[in-house]
Design brief:
The structure is a single chain. The chain is of the alpha/beta class and 394 residues long. The chain has 15 helices and 13 strands. It has helices at residues 16-32, 48-54, 78-96, 109-118, 134-140, 178-185, 204-220, 235-241, 257-263, 273-282, 298-308, 320-332, 335-348, 353-369, 385-388; strands at residues 7-12, 37-42, 59-61, 100-105, 123-127, 145-148, 162-164, 192-197, 224-229, 248-251, 266-269, 286-288, 312-314. The strands form 2 sheets. The chain has a 7-stranded parallel β-sheet, sandwiched between helices. The longest helix is centred in the first third of the chain and has 19 residues, at 78-96. It starts with 6 loop residues before the first strand and ends in a 6-residue tail after the last helix.
């Protein structure tokens, strides 16, 4: 008997931390099983609406909204949007007929994976942080498998079904080399390089500390170069206020983060899950400044995990102004410490995370595909699926 190719549904959205791991998993699935049918569930107005089609995958949008923890009139709409999103997900699962559904976090994963589970599909959860988010914690109770990036997250999910597989990251990160990277930024090979970034929008706290202290750093070390990504929100103001310096590379956005990591001796950055995973796979020593404005303070938990592993030092935002110069110069001035941190980061890294998760998904999916007696909702025979469900394509 000839079986159809596996159908795999991915749900994750809202932020890059949820979207890009899902895309990395999809890319690994495509590499391992080119015939596999892959579809994404997301929203029309968040990052996934652009990123998923750009990566070459179809996105089927649903209606979804998060519950506001503070008193808000928007919470009155929450149950209606949740119900609408669930009905849309129910119909999508019926039409696409996935053999497994995987959620990488964000509100959109909730209705999509619950609908898949209620229709008898195995579901898989991938959690990026050391502290599992509320959506993934609830879904993990129903999940066949839970893939974790940090061992600390086992405390929040059914541990017997959890595996530590790491966060999927871009393959290009491990391919960049120091010499070409230094050339890319116009930095001598024998220079010392501090890389500072706070995400695409930027970090007010990191930018404020740099604005006050960057010239002190540069004046105190003749060989130091600073690559400073300000973020879109702050670049124009800082470009006007910060005096130019031949060893200061002020940038709005860094397109080639692979080159930035390869060029850096030390990174000063936030402690988001994907950032931490990228620091690990590139072996970049880091001073991590967790954002205090995230749910359940999960960035601090990520940073503490990195610090316990010896790959990073935690620098609380509240102490950034007082300790900034001393903390940076202490690590930059100690090559042995940086070498130990780089080695520890690589020891913590799981560069094959996307492939490990993809292999597990394909194994789960193929077990269902090979079960000839199982009920089907239509699957490949449902030719009207794309006519009944709008999709966003590149």
């Amino acid at each position: 008997m000839t079986h159809r190719a596996p159908h795999i549904l991915l749900a994750g959205g809202g932020t890059g931390g949820h979207v890009y791991p899902a895309i990395a998993i999809a890319d690994a699935i495509r590499e391992l099983a080119p015939a596999a049918e892959i579809a994404f569930v997301g929203t029309r107005d968040r990052l996934e609406a652009q990123a998923v089609p750009k990566a070459g995958y179809s996105l089927y949008p649903i209606t979804v909204a998060g519950f506001q923890r503070s008193l808000s009139a928007r919470n009155l709409q929450f149950p209606f949007k949740l119900l609408k999103g669930f009905v849309q997900s129910w119909n999508l699962v019926r039409g696409f007929d996935p053999d497994v559904a995987v959620g990488t976090g964000g509100y959109v994963a909730g209705p999509a994976l619950v609908a898949a589970w209620m229709r008898g599909r195995p579901i898989v959860v991938q959690e990026q942080n050391a502290y599992a988010g509320i959506t993934n914690r609830l879904l993990s109770v129903l999940a066949t498998r839970i893939h974790l990036a940090f061992p600390e997250a086992k405390d929040y999910v059914p541990a017997r079904r959890a595996v530590i597989s790491g966060n999927p990251t871009r393959a290009a990160l491990t391919e960049a080399r120091r010499g070409p990277a230094r050339d890319h930024f116009g930095i001598p090979d024998d220079a010392s390089v501090l890389l500072v970034f706070g995400g695409s929008l930027g970090s007010a706290a990191l930018n404020g500390a740099l604005e006050r202290h960057v010239h002190t750093l540069l004046d105190g070390a003749a060989s130091l170069h600073v690559i400073w990504q300000t973020g879109n929100r702050y670049y124009d103001t800082l470009a006007d206020r910060v005096a130019p310096h031949p060893r200061l590379h002020l940038m709005q956005y860094i397109e080639r983060m692979d080159m930035a990591y390869a060029a850096a001796d030390l990174a000063l950055c936030r402690a988001g899950a994907i950032t931490c995973s990228e620091l690990m796979v590139t072996g970049t020593p880091a001073l991590l400044v967790p954002s205090p404005n995230v749910t359940a303070d999960h960035q601090t938990k990520n940073a503490r995990s990195m610090e316990r592993g010896g790959a990073a030092r935690l620098l609380p935002e509240a102490e950034l102004g007082a300790r900034f110069v001393a903390a940076v110069t202490a690590v930059l001035g100690d090559p042995a410490q940086r070498a130990q941190m780089a080695a520890a980061a690589r020891d913590m890294a799981r560069p094959d995370a996307a492939h490990r998760i993809a292999e597990d998904l394909l194994e789960i999916a193929e077990a269902r595909v090979s079960n000839a007696d199982r009920p089907r909702d239509g699957g490949a025979a449902d030719a009207s699926f794309d006519n009944r469900h709008s999709k966003i394509e590149s």
